[in-house]
Every structure is written in C-alpha cells, then in structure tokens.
Write a structure and sequence with these properties.
About 25% of the residues lie in helices and about 25% in strands. α6 (about 270-275) crosses α7 (about 285-300). The two termini are about 30 Å apart. It has helices at about 90-105, 120, 125-130, 200-210, 230-255, 270-275, 285-300, and strands at about 1-10, 15-20, 45-50, 55-60, 70-75, 80-85, 105-115, 135-140, 155, 160-165, 175-180, 185, 220, 305-310, 310-315. It has a six-stranded mixed β-sheet, covered by helices on one side. The longest helix is centred in the last third of the chain and has 25 residues, at about 230-255. The protein is an alpha+beta fold.
C-alpha cells in the first residue's frame, strides 16, 4: 500500500494534510470510505544537530497546517552562521535560537527565506529586532530585504549554499544546495511527510525535474523529518503527480454513465472527483476538486483536453473514447 496525502491550501499559506491509502490499482482509492485522517507525525526535538554543519530548530508552530512545525536551519561551524527560514516568530523559536547561538558561541550573519508563506517569513521582524543588521535574503523581496538570484552562493565557514529558483509551490520559491553534504534544503516543494501543494502544476513539475539533478544526498525539508534519499523522494513525487494525471485522463476516456449520449464525454471537476476520490469523505471533495482543476489546466496547455463552456472538460481527441 502506498501512503499519499491530499493537501489543502489554507488561507494563511499553510497546508492541511489528510492521509489516505492507495493500492496498486491507481484508477481508484482502496481506502475504506470515510477513513481519512492526519497521519501520525514522527517526534522531532525542538533543537537537533543533524550534521556537523546543520542544526534544525523548530518554529514552535506545530499543527495540522505545519506538521511538527516549520523547520528552520542554522548552518556553519564558525562564529558566523547562516539561517534558513524564520518560522512565524514564535517566542519559543526566538528563545531556542538565542540559546543555540550562545552554546555555539556564534551569531547569524545572513538569513535566507525560501518563500513568502507566513510560516517561513513571519519571524523576520522578530529576527531584526533581536539581531539588528542581519542581512535577510528572499526571492522577489520587499520591505528592505535583499534579493536572491538563481545560482547565488552564500558562504560561511563549513557551509556553502547555492540557491536555485524552483517556483510552483509559490512563484518565489527557492531551494538551496549544501555543497559540503551534496544535500538540498527543499523548502515546501518537498516535505518530510506527505506531498506538497502548488500554485501551478506544470511549473511545479518542471521545478521537481530541475531539483532532482542538483544533488545526490539527503533532503532537508521545510516541514517534517530529514529525507535520507532526497532525489529518490523527488522521483516519487513526480511519479505520484503523473499517476494523478493518468487517473484524470482515464476517467475522461471512460465516459459518464449518468449522462445522455451527447454529454457522456463532458465532465465537471467535481464529476471527476467523485470517481477518482470515491473513497474519500465528501467533505474533502471541494479541496480535491482544486487539485483536479490544476491537472486539467496543465493537460489543456499540453493540448490533451478541452474546456467546454468554462466548467466542463473532455479529451481533445474524441476518437480515444
């Protein structure tokens, strides 16, 4: 059985994760109807050294939208350190950062924000208040932040990071490759548990393809535990999305049994959801429909499907029916 997740966009920019199970027949879910729940989350310490150069500090914001909390990372072995992401600026996070820096006899030289969502950049004001003068970098910056460009390098003793622009989850999303470990900080494009949501599926898929070739080691995600085989997990993500696309195409090809001959090849996103997600609670159908619309829009750009009157869809090649 393959564990995967439906992830629902939350207005705050966070994500709600519902775990369901799929068998080898990808044309439908094999979970028992009504059985969808947030998966058991692995315990993560508030502060944990993950490697000689990397310390993870949780953002102090655990919940259904952020799993164990936002992962922030302190990098380097000398007095100058790099920080990746700032959480929401919770007091417990600031206290943990201070305590860790005191123990390390270090300070933050620069902070790098992977993307605009509040649970990754919300701590910026608190960071500036606590450590004035800290350089803070973000793609498409605002409010006095410094820009990040594709290929930009950030260095301190023991840590060299190369930034890569990987939009899809958000338009400004950046990942960072740690040269010393051939590892990647994946932001929210790849999570330690479940799968990620995205603003644009085609762009997101292109970014995953780009990411898998940039490193060979572990992945440090924006939420959840470290992934030992980062590129392997990215391949799983790509395969999962392709399976979802194939489910949509196969369902469109099957024809609707509840429609007359003239409309048998026309489907609304909700029609597709009721087939593809037939074993998921109906309360999740609207969220699932959003993902199906993303797939349909990608397939339309590729010339594989057509929209009819804006809200119904069919295959472009009707001879395939």
């Amino acid at each position: 059985m393959l564990l995967f997740s439906i992830l629902i966009n939350h207005p705050s920019g966070g994500e709600m994760q519902f775990a369901v199970y799929s068998g080898t027949n990808h044309s439908r879910l094999s979970a028992q109807r009504g059985r969808a729940a947030i998966p058991t989350l692995r315990f993560l310490p508030e502060v944990e050294r993950l490697s000689p150069t990397c310390i993870r500090i949780l953002g102090g914001n655990p919940g259904k939208f952020s799993l164990q909390g936002t992962n922030t990372y302190l990098l380097g072995i000398g007095p100058k350190r790099l920080l990746i992401d700032t959480g929401e600026g919770k007091p417990s996070w600031i206290a943990a950062i201070k305590r860790t820096l005191d123990e390390e006899k270090a300070y933050i030289a620069s902070a790098i924000v992977t993307h605009w969502h509040h649970d990754h950049q919300g701590g910026i004001p608190h960071l500036i208040e606590t450590w004035p003068g800290t350089e803070i970098y973000k793609c498409q910056p605002g409010n006095g932040l410094l820009n990040i460009t594709d290929g930009q390098i950030f260095e301190v003793e023991g840590a060299s990071l190369t930034a890569a622009h990987t939009p899809g989850h958000t338009v400004d999303h950046m990942v960072l490759v740690l040269r010393e470990e051939d590892a990647m900080f994946t932001g929210d494009n790849v999570l330690g548990q479940g799968t990620a949501v995205f603003e644009d599926l085609g762009t997101y898929m292109a970014s995953l393809e780009k990411m898998k070739h940039l490193f060979k080691g572990r992945a440090y995600p924006g939420h959840g535990p470290v992934l030992p085989d980062g590129p392997g997990k990215i391949v799983e993500y790509i395969q999962h999305r392709r399976q979802r696309e194939e489910q949509v195409v196969q369902t469109l090809r099957s024809g609707r049994a509840d429609a007359d001959a003239e409309g048998a090849d026309l489907w609304t996103p909700m029609d597709l959801v009721k087939i593809i997600y037939c074993d998921v609670p109906e309360s999740l159908y609207p969220a699932a429909a959003g993902g199906v619309v993303q797939i349909l829009q990608k397939l339309e750009r590729e010339g594989k499907v057509l929209s009819v009157n804006g809200d119904r869809w069919r295959l472009s090649d009707r001879s395939a029916l």
